[in-house]
Amino acid sequence: MGSALPIKPVDSAANAAAASFAGLTAKLDYLSAQDIEQVRLAYRFADEAHLGQLRNNGEPYITHPIAVAAQCAEWKLDAQALMAALLHDALEDCGVTKIELIERFGSPVAELVDGLTKLDKLQFNTREENQAESFRKMLLAMARDVRVILIKLADRSHNMRTLSDVPRSKWNRIASETLEIYAPIAHRLGLNQTYRELQDLSFQHLKPWRYNILKKAVTKARSRRRDLIQKVQKEVEAVFSEADIPVRIAGREKTLYSIYQKMTNKHLSFAQVTDIYGFRVLVPTVIDCYTALGLLHQLYKPVPGKFKDHTAIAKLNGYQSLHTTLVGPSGINIEFQMRTEAMHVVAESGVAAHWLYKVNHPDDTSSERLGTKWLQSLLDIQDETRDAAEFWDHVKVDLFPDAVYVFTPKSQIMALPRGATVVDFAYAIHSNVGDRTMAARINGEQVPLRTELKNGDVVEVITAPVSTPNPAWLSFVRTGRARSKIRHHLKTMAQTESESLGERLLHQALRSEGIEHFPDGDPQYAPLWDKLLRFTGNKTRHELLTDIGLGKRIANIVAKRLLHLLVESGERPDALLLTRERFTAHESPSMGLITLDGSENASVQFAQCCRPIPGDAIVGYLGRGEGLVVHASDCQIAKKLQLKDSERFIGVDWADEPVRPFETGIVVTVTNGKGVLAKVAAALATAEADIIHIDMGQDAAQEASDLRFLLAVRDTAHLEIALRNLRRTQSVLRAERNKSSA
Questions:
Q1: DSSP one-letter string for 7-63
Q2: Which is nearest to 353 in space by CA: 370, 335, 375?
Q3: Backbone dihedral region of 584: left (phi > 0), alpha (psi from -120 to 50 degrees) or beta?
Q4: Most buried in the list 70, 199, 368, 516, measured by CB within 10 Å?
Q5: What is the pLDDT at residue 361?
Q6: What Cα–Cα distance (Å) separates residue 512 from each residue in 304, 573, 614, 630, 653?
Q7: Which of 58-67, 250-259, 656-665 has the lowest mean pLDDT?
């Protein structure tokens, strides 16, 4: 990419063939006709953009993008990736702008091309290993879409295949960069075929003399042992045929670079490297892998200590296979790898297996598991470094464009839809975690619960036993699971609290009728409740009590009917209780008044029109279907309701020790000037009154302004302290409580 590498001169007919779209079309049979047409349009655009540009020895430049796209097609990448592969040099070399690409091919393709252009500008110019690791991290970090890395590796592969035609002075730099940067990335992504090819091509150009000597030695050994290998293959096929297991056997030869590395690291001669040859045994199922192992161990003796099970415990880049080394005929060691066809796809194509698998199995969700497994592998930094947390800080890769991958504090990966928030994450872990969520940290920093998650975030949810779902969460959660769990909890909580309130109201109404004992759910009262339910039209006792709590039924009317039924069954009202309730109820809350301490949640609402707080005289209104609404006694709206709907009002009072602060409004008139708001906020902070909301109005240009605050205070005494503090503050002209809802 960028400064593309020249290749050998070819004749004009071959040039035309290499530069045509026809060769690529044959590899696009997995795409729809519409997608192929989109790829064709990208080819035409790239061909026009590079018109007149030649590689160093006369070949049309377009042959390079076509070769890169062909490699991507081998991996079955989608149409967008193939279009980006064809256009990957247009942005840098042809003066085409990103806006032009967006207009012609859409934003996703333009973003891929832009990502590739940015990667191409990175220059690696040091031999230090830690620098190489940093560079690899930088590449992965900059590629927000994994397809960018795949196209880049296809681009590098083609350039390496044509490196022999570049001046030898450049070989060392390009081959070193490939060996230290791109081959390890290919390995980490599980692209084993590309990994091996890049290693061998780099070795060929870094140490041509050693490469050629080793190549000759391997060729000689191969011809000498050809008969032996054929004999082994026939014997193995016969054993599987006898066992009636369908099998595909393929020879596998160690790469020249891996032989060279083994000789160098272990100080061995070529003759001492015994496991040059091997076979891949492809069988239908995982169980067959283990059966194959047993059959082979009966056929040839295994070499002790040379058995590895990567099937039960996959390598971190998703690779799975059973490995065993056996002593074949003439005492030659031969390695066998047993795997299924699906394992083989992952072993050869790694992360690209996601697309390969999806093409062949469009309805199978295991392609997502493949992706998750690969992402989990990114946590391992293999031999270079063990600092997985640091590595992930740099790796921000989108494997699926519609999903986001985040980590739990224990480094487990969780996939969520794009736009998911902390609350979605909490419910994805467990509904109990979601219900108890109080706060959260992302990457160690405290964040609001509505924060959207990004790839690679480490999310920690802080829970509290007293915490419950907030109805406001429904406005920002993205997952259906979170939404349904929140709704279910709120509905259950509202019903439970309304039922409890309804029971208290009915009990109180019965006391007013002179009945002390409340008929509970005891079986002896079942006939009584059945008659009462027929009267009210409710299906169950719970439903009736919930309706009373929600204000859908008037407690006094139900109590009168219940009294009538109790009298029929032989009970009589207590005259003393009747007198006491009717004449002294409002003097003593213990005589049946509903007491409020702020823990009532959904069943009790505090009216927005007057915002009552402990210390205010209050009244309770049973709104139709909205539970108990508490107003201040002097509230104008409450007074109008009393005239119209007096039977719905009940006696309420504050508990001695409310469990939470309550909201109330104040208006502060200030002279405009520098730092006034800060002074007002400081005065409120000194009084320990929390500011919930501020409305500064539109009259900032005038000499004086009204600031409207919504405060959380304990009671009227606490509010008075806050107002007193404000009145003493410089620049404050007036500070009053605001009981209007505005």
A1: -----HHHHHHHHSSHHHHTT-TTS-HHHHHHHHHHHHHHHHHTTT-B-TTS-BTTH
A2: 370
A3: alpha
A4: 199
A5: 52
A6: 91, 10, 26, 21, 17
A7: 250-259
Angle, helices 33-49/98-105, rounded to nearest 10 degrees: 150
CA–CA distance, 514 with 575 (Å, rounded to integer): 6
Question: What whole-number distance in Å separates Cα of residue 464 and Cα of residue 225?
Answer: 70
Q: Is residue 636 one of the residues assigned to a domain?
A: yes
Question: Residue 718 pLDDT > 90, yes or no?
Answer: yes
Residue that finishes a domain, picked among 654, 687, 718? 654
Q: Is 59 designated active site?
A: no
Question: Which pLDDT band holds residue 716 (cuts at 50, 70, 90)?
Answer: very high
Residue 676 lies in domain:
662-738
Strand partners, 460: 441
Lowest-pLDDT choice from 142-146, 458-462, 489-493, 505-509: 142-146
379 in a domain, yes or no?
Answer: no
Catalytically annotated residue among 74, 92, 574, 715: 92
pLDDT digits (tens, 9 = 90+) for 174-231: 888 888 778 877 876 767 788 889 999 988 888 889 888 888 888 887 777 777 778 8
State the average pLDDT for the chain: 76
Classify residue 7: in a domain, yes or no.
Answer: no
Q: Say which CATH number the domain at 348 has.
A: 3.30.460.10
Q: What percent of the chain has pLDDT over 90?
A: 9
How many helices (H) and strands (E) are present in the chain, helices listed first?
A: 30, 20
Q: Cα–Cα distance between 329 and 231 in angstroms, integer?
A: 9
Instruction: Tell me the three state secondary structure of residue 318.
Output: coil
197 catalytic? Reply is no
- Does any domain span residue 224? yes
* Contact indicator for 635, 693 with CB cutoff of 8 Å: no
Q: Does one domain contain both 438 and 511?
A: no
Q: What is the pLDDT of residue 26?
A: 82
Contact 61, 54 (CB under 8 A): yes
Cα gap 510→555, rounded to integer Å: 9
pTM attached to this predicted model: 0.45
Q: Is the domain of 502 the same as that of 633?
A: yes
From the candidates 47, 59, 89, 93, which is the catalytic residue?
93
